[in-house]
Design goal:
heterotrimer; A mainly alpha (about 100); B mainly alpha (about 550); C mainly alpha (about 240); A: about 100 residues; mainly alpha; 3 helices; B: mainly alpha; about 65% helix; about 0% strand
Chain lengths: ~100, ~550, ~240
């Protein structure tokens, strides 16, 4: 790992922070918009962008090897598996005319 | 894997430098005080600590199994005072065997001992965390044992809600806390293995040269790291619901008890692979060695191991076919479950192909390995039956399921653990085990195991439900067979315990490489020196580089 | 480190890392550093799944009771939650600057920034505690004292759903999730603060070199993770539908 050659400048960190604050504002703005059930999608997209920025710059993922990136994204992939397959049960209940199924 | 040190023949040969000089610096002899063991950060010593602890738990769980089988000899409940007591007995048998024996068995004992040796490292990446994991394990274990002595728990090892959260009046929270604690030990072990295998490999030990034992532990660790936390948070939610009555699984409060099953099996199905993947690793070391051939399809073997660990996370719903899970979800889970059969099939065929045209040598570890292949195949194929929706509805919660998972866990994981223990016993203890008794015990275990559990397939298919302590008289003959088998099995498990202990004093000293096996662990003395390698080895050869010519000439 | 060539190469390639003592089982500081970072990331993966279990449960109930979750969420204060997000993002910046300070071998910066991180972290917990006290006061804590009356039009205003009476059990369920998730998050914050405090004292007393970036960086990774959790909790709990 040769990340010592990749110091983020002070300015870089401040810009990052500014971007995060901006996105926070955007998330709140979106929450007030009449988006109905797309609120969740919209706010989650904003949150994901924020998380990616924090991981990439604050947590130096940008300068890490692919292995570390794989671990970081693998965790979220697994969370996706857990949520998707669990939801697949709840959202498809009652689709067949079998009581309790 | 430096070629000069590999003996091409099996016959043990004396150490070139025997005597006290070589002995003085091995990891056992380096210090003798109890403190030096309890505060050790040496991965080999921690492996030994784990070995002693899980042996204790194995025999406690075994006593419970014996009581269960004795109770089931007659159709009426007569040995235990009540059905409640029987419920507690099988629950505790399950919890002890799964969380305190099977899950730590091969990884924490053999994995701890061997991974650094196999990859040419001086220790695991985080030796202190490794010791901490043993202490956490012991705290969780003692906690659970204490609960069992003071009343026990009767929910089954699965802790299904709403029984566990609302109705059971046994020590659910305390037991669940024990499982919660031991989960962290499992996470720490897995984390340590992942980092070690990534960063501590010796020069030249590329991923393509990594022993399949390490591959298997790598995959296992991924499952431990990604699955165990979900169990932990589920247990916390269960505890909250039981204590504060504000939970999320209680139908009275608008909750869904089936959600507990989803979250529980998200860990507990992959946990089956925590138990069985390391066994694959052990087999991949034993079979090439005693067939004198390189493992067939190394890349496919490694790939299959990883594929099983990944697919293992996609199939948990097959435990829930008869619950309120939706039919569509059931169908998805059934299809995904059948996919696990593909990598498992690859493994069985590749083991067979490794032996093909090889010089198969029937030493004790190989007997266990051969037993594993057969029993794992039966267990796996019945698993496919259970993964098929329609059949599962018929045999769900019967002895068919009980037989199936015992074929995987006892016929598979435990046989592989014993096989591995025999295979590496010379390395671990520096002494040979008695070959004659080893073979006898392996045979007794194989016969006893099949006599115990094959009748249970029939029982289940005939409709005998699991977790009942009284049953209809027509099932008795099969139950008696099963109990008879269990007694044989018990004898089979006691014999190795006796001769392993005795071997420490009465057996001949083990040479460096008694089996003529490949692998870096066989290039160091038996038992290994405290710091494993005097100088970091450099790997230049492919794995399992057994001599092809040797077989042709003989 | 017996081989001087290795030692030289290691110290040349990693100026900052050489300040942390090398454990006996590592060959060089680079390997030690890589192991520590990878270990922390693997640990964070377990943390993702730890929070992931509860988030999955949340997702299920939110999917099957959207109106109740939307109505319940309106009793929370998006303003206080937003301020807290800002505070936490600020603490993340501070800890990132502390890591940068350790890379630049500026002991003073490290100490100041670690102190600022702890200050902001404590502020977060304070605001959180204030919020909780408000919610307890409004009988929103689940249990026998739970009390929730749907405000006028609340049920029908929720988008795209046939309006009916709210299932109060599911409204209460939202608060179970709210208190459990924020509680678990606060617990992680407290652990993080404790570790930061230890680190701060160690560096202050010069038991640890401020210039050895490994401990600061590892603790920083954990702190950023706690921040990321909140980045997701905020929209999931506070911003379901604000009016």
């Amino acid at each position: 790992m040769t990340h010592e050659n990749h110091h983020v400048s002070l300015r870089g960190y401040l810009i990052t922070f500014g971007a995060l604050v901006g996105l926070l504002g955007l998330a709140i703005l979106v929450a007030y918009l009449p988006l109905g059930r797309f609120h969740l999608t919209a706010t989650l997209i904003v949150a994901t962008i924020k998380a990616v920025i924090i991981m990439a710059i604050f947590m130096h993922l940008r300068f890490s090897n692919r292995l570390t990136i794989a671990f970081a994204s693998g965790a979220f992939l697994w969370l996706g598996i857990l949520i998707t397959l669990t939801l697949s049960d709840y959202l498809s209940r009652g689709l067949l005319a079998i009581p309790g199924k | 894997m430096s070629g000069t040190l590999i003996e091409p023949r099996l016959d043990p040969r004396p150490d070139p430098v025997p005597g006290p000089k070589a002995d003085a610096e091995n990891y056992i002899a380096v210090e003798h005080s109890v403190k030096s063991w309890l505060l050790t950060t040496d991965h080999k010593r921690i492996g030994i600590l784990y070995m002693l602890s899980i042996t204790l738990f194995f025999f406690i769980g075994g006593v419970m199994a014996t009581i269960i089988r004795m109770e089931l000899m007659t159709p009426r409940g007569d040995l235990l005072r009540s059905g409640d007591e029987y419920n507690r007995m099988f629950t505790q048998h399950g919890i002890i065997m799964i969380f305190f024996f099977l899950i730590p068995s091969i990884p924490a004992v053999l994995g701890n001992f061997l991974i650094p040796l196999q990859i040419g490292a001086r220790d695991l990446a985080f030796p202190k965390l490794n010791l901490l994991s043993w202490y956490i394990f012991m705290v969780g274990g003692m906690f659970t044992l204490g609960v069992m002595l003071t009343g026990g728990v009767d929910t089954g090892w699965t802790f299904y809600t709403p029984f566990s959260s609302m109705f059971s009046n046994t020590h659910v929270i305390a037991t669940a806390l024990g499982v919660f604690i031991v989960g962290f030990s499992s996470i720490l072990t897995g984390l340590n293995f992942i980092v070690t295998i990534h960063t501590m490999r010796a020069p030249g030990m590329t991923w393509g040269r990594l022993p399949l034992f390490c591959w298997a532990h790598y995959a296992t660790s991924l499952v431990q790291v990604l699955g165990t936390p979900v169990l932990a948070v589920t247990i916390v939610l269960l505890g909250l619901e039981r204590i504060l009555r504000i939970g999320i699984f209680d139908p009275k409060l608008g909750g869904d008890p089936i959600l507990f099953q989803h979250m529980f099996w998200f860990y507990s199905h992959p946990a089956v692979y925590i138990m069985v993947l390391p066994s694959f690793g052990v087999l991949n070391e034993i079979i090439p060695c005693f067939s004198r051939r390189p493992v067939f399809g190394y890349k496919f073997m490694a790939g299959a191991i990883l594929a099983i660990s990944m697919l293992g996370f996609l199939v948990w719903g097959h435990h829930m076919f008869v619950s309120g899970q939706s039919m569509y979800s059931g169908m998805i889970f059934a299809i995904l479950s059948l996919l696990v059969g593909i990598p498992s099939g690859i493994k069985v065929f590749n083991w067979t192909a490794t032996m093909y045209k090889g010089q198969v040598i029937g030493k004790t570890p190989m007997l266990y390995a051969l037993g594993f292949v057969g029993l794992f195949t039966i267990g796996g194929l019945t698993g496919l039956m259970l993964a098929s929706l329609a059949i599962d509805v018929h045999v769900h919660d019967t002895y068919f399921v009980v037989a199936h998972f015992h074929y995987i866990m006892v016929g598979g994981a435990t046989m592989a653990y014993l096989g591995g223990l025999h295979f590496w016993w010379p390395k671990i203890s520096g002494r040979m085990y008695p070959e004659f008794w080893g073979k006898i015990a392996a045979m007794i275990i194989f016969i006893g195991f099949n006599l115990t559990f094959f009748p249970q397939f029939l029982l289940g298919y005939l409709g005998m439900p699991r977790r009942y302590y009284e049953y209809k008289p027509e099932f008795q003959i099969l139950h008696v067979m099963s109990t008879a088998g269990a007694s044989i099995l018990a004898v089979g498990f006691l014999i190795p315990l006796v001769y392993f202990i005795l071997s420490l004093w009465y057996s001949p000293r083990a040479p460096k490489n008694p089996w003529g096996a490949t692998g870096l662990e066989w290039t160091v003395a038996s038992p290994p020196p405290a710091h494993n390698f005097d100088e970091t080895p450099i790997v230049t050869e492919p794995p399992y580089n057994y001599d092809h010519d040797e077989v042709d000439h003989e | 480190m017996s081989d001087p060539a290795v030692a030289l190469a290691a110290s040349a390639s990693s100026v900052e890392m050489g300040d942390v003592p090398l454990a006996h089982h590592f060959d060089d500081p680079v390997q030690q550093h890589e192991s520590a970072v990878l270990g922390m990331w693997a640990f964070l993966a377990t943390e993702v799944m730890f929070f992931g279990g509860i988030i999955a449960a949340y997702t299920v109930y939110r999917a099957i009771s959207q109106d109740e979750f939307a109505a319940a969420s309106q009793r929370l204060s998006p303003a206080l939650g937003g301020i807290n997000t800002l505070v936490l993002l600020g603490s993340s910046l501070a800890v990132a600057l502390a890591v940068r300070g350790s890379q630049m071998r500026q002991r003073k910066t490290v100490l100041i920034m670690l102190g600022l991180t702890m200050l902001l972290g404590t502020a977060f917990l304070g605001i959180k505690a204030y919020e909780w006290s408000l919610e307890f006061g409004h009988h929103l804590a689940p249990g026998p004292n739970f009390h929730f009356e749907a405000e006028h039009g609340e049920a029908s205003a929720s988008a795209s759903h046939a309006s009916g009476p709210l299932d109060l059990r599911r409204v209460q369920m939202f608060f179970v999730f709210y208190f459990f998730m924020t509680g678990l998050h606060a617990f992680h914050m407290i652990i993080g603060l404790a570790i930061l405090a230890i680190l701060f004292v160690q560096i202050f007393r010069r038991r640890l070199p401020a210039t050895g970036e490994r401990p600061v960086e590892i603790v920083g990774l954990y702190w950023h993770f706690v921040d990321i959790v909140w980045v997701f909790l905020y929209p999931l709990l506070y911003l379901i539908e604000v009016r």
